[in-house]
Structures are given as structure tokens and as C-alpha cells.
Amino acid sequence: MPAKDTNTRAWQVYGQRQIGHGYVPPVPETIGWGPWDGVGPGTEILGVLTGKRVLDIGSGAGHHAVHLARDHGAHVTAVEQSATQHERAVRHFGNRPGIEWVHGDVIEHLRAVEPYDAAYAIGTLAYTDPHELLPALRDGLAPHAPLIFSCLHTDLHGRGPSTSVVPREQQLLLRKDPPITVDMYVLAPLLWEDLLTEYGFQVEASDLLTAPSTDNPVRHQLIRARRVPDRPSLITSRPRSNRPPAPHAAIGVGAILVGQQGLLLGRHRRGTRELPGGSVEAGESLEQTVVRELAEETGLSARIEDVTLLGTLVDHVGDVVRLTVGALVTAWEGEPADQAGESIGDWSWWPLDELPDELFVCSAQILTAWRPDLPIDHPPTHFNAFAPAR
């Protein structure tokens, strides 16, 4: 049976038993977030409620809603899924001012109302799938509105919370009646925080409420969160002027390919030996530039995922800041060959211990950044290694 159906039936039975016992919980002077009097904070953590619309999630017998309306001037909407629990509340407190009693599903209720100024749940939020309830609460609460709720952390058997969003079987215990089986989302505090953050809330505090008796293992969580305002559609940007900036920098890539025969180098028409590579074009990623230049200059085909960027080399040539990015290509297809219209050709493989003289400065800088042990002389440059990808 789905958890929702199990819990609806369980609370129906619970409410019917309490009606049979004639039990009506007294209206408290302050909210107790756990099952023990005097443990943890009280109503004050909800903030000033006078005149505010407050949602009571799983209002049960209704005594907390009466407290907020009577003592704090709140306009409370008490939503209860169980027909018998709703009956208990209306039977005893139905004529109290400042309270709207709603029998129904809180998720469906939130779809049809104006956003609330605050919402709270005492032990009840954990009976609904958070992936369904939290987005409904995000949409049903005003920006900056508090969401405060308590839920089970460690049960009577010492069983702690789960790190996955899966309901588990727990028992509702009444002194004179058999236990009632329910399905609860008993989640670790960090998991609750992750879920709340995912669905548009900021967690402000998370506390554990511990039983006064040292031999009682039960603990409850008290989580205080707040609805994060919706972000504006986009933050604007603009250029300083309509004129393009004065050109004063050049950026290019150089690709290291090492095969069984050594390192791939070509000869530029001006005589230097060079790695395949070239200038970055507008709109390209650095990896895309490596793949394009490799194909254009050598005819070799490579994939972007086989390109690893090593870092940037920065130096000056006259008044131009030169930025060179070295890349290691770990896989390719084809054999290098001269390409028509290109300024580099005569591609060949060179053993690393037999590299030729007159390497192009940028290629030399890339090679020593990759392998500092290579005996290559070149003008000084500043190398910034890229952090490895996560």
C-alpha cells in the first residue's frame, strides 16, 4: 500500500480512538515542538504573527491553531487530512475566531490559495513525500516566510534517521490501545537541509530535542527554514561603449600528441618546429579549438572528451599579451598529413629524447609546462595549471 494511503488510514483510526476516549488536548500556553514539556523553544521562533496568515500542516486536534489565534492574533488555516482528526478539532474548537478548519490534502489546498505568511508542522510533515510537499510549500509561502517543523530523528528502539528519501514503518503508540502502523520519512538533518535547499528554502537552524529521561533514546529534530525569494528573471549587462576594445592580446592553443614513435611536430614555413594548434575563434571553447586546429593542420580526427587542458601560459610579445593554452590529446584517428593552404606541414614523430632545435617559443613553453624535465630553452613565461575536473 502506498505510504499516503497507509497514513491516511492510520490517522483515521487514531482520531476515531481519541473520539472514543473523549480526549481533548488542552490549548497550550506555548508550542511544544517535541513530545516533552519544557524541552526546546516555544512559539516565539515563529516570529510576530499578529494579523498574519499562518498554515497549520496536519493540525490534528486543533489545539495549536487555537493557541496561535487566541494568544498571538494569527489568522490560522488548519489543514487536516484525517476526517476523524478534523472532526475532533471542529467539534471542540469550531466556533473559535481567527481559524479556518480545512479537511483535505495540504498539497491540493496550497494550489488554490494565496501564499501564506508562515507555516508550521508539529511532527506531521514527515508523513508526506518531501519531493511532493516541499515544492508545494515553496509555491504556497510568501518570500521570506518561515517554515518551521519538528519530526522524528531517533525512535524508541534507538533507530536513527535515514540518508535516503524513502519512508519506513513506524508505530503510533497509545497507552491503552494497540499500536498503529504508519510510514514516515525519518531523514537525517543534512538530508532535510539538502531537500529544503533544492526546493527554494534556506535552513536557518536545525536542533535536536532530547528526552529529559536519560534512558529514553527518542530524539526529535526541530528545523527552522525560510522561503527564499524568487530570483529576478535575469540581471542585465551592457558594454562600456559601442566601440570594440583596442586589440592588445592574443590567445591560442597547442596540442600535445604522443604516440609510439614519439611527439608529433610540424615545420612552419618560417622554419620553426611546432605543435599542432592555432588561434581561438569567436564562440569556440578551448577544447573545440584544439579539435578544429588538429583537423585543419594535420587531418587527424579527435573528440572533445579526449582533450585535457593543462593550463595557461602568459607572456608578452611587444605590446601584446600572449595567452597560450596547452592541451594533451589522448586519442585520435588517422595519420598526420600536410593539408592544403596551411602554413605548417612536414608532420613527423620525434622521440622525446631527440627533439629538434628551433622549436617555436609557444610550443617549447607548452612542452616544459607538461614535462619540466625536458631540456628545452625558451623565454620566461608564467604557467597557471588548471585544477583537475571533478
TrEMBL record:
PROSITE patterns noted in UniProt: NUDIX, NUDIX_BOX
Keyword line: Hydrolase, Methyltransferase, Transferase
Gene3D superfamilies: Nucleoside Triphosphate Pyrophosphohydrolase, Vaccinia Virus protein VP39
SUPFAM superfamilies membership: Nudix (SSF55811), S-adenosyl-L-methionine-dependent methyltransferases (SSF53335)
InterPro entries: Methyltransf_25 (IPR041698), Nudix_hydrolase (IPR020476), NUDIX_hydrolase-like_dom_sf (IPR015797), NUDIX_hydrolase_CS (IPR020084), NUDIX_hydrolase_dom (IPR000086), SAM-dependent_MTases_sf (IPR029063)
Record-linked Pfam families: Methyltransf_25 (PF13649), NUDIX (PF00293)
Signal peptide: none
A GO term for molecular function: methyltransferase activity
Domain Nudix hydrolase as annotated: residue spans: 246-373
Cofactor(s) the protein requires to work: Mg(2+)
Keyword Membrane found: no
UniProt record, GO biological process: methylation
Family per record: Belongs to the Nudix hydrolase family.
Protein name: Methyltransferase
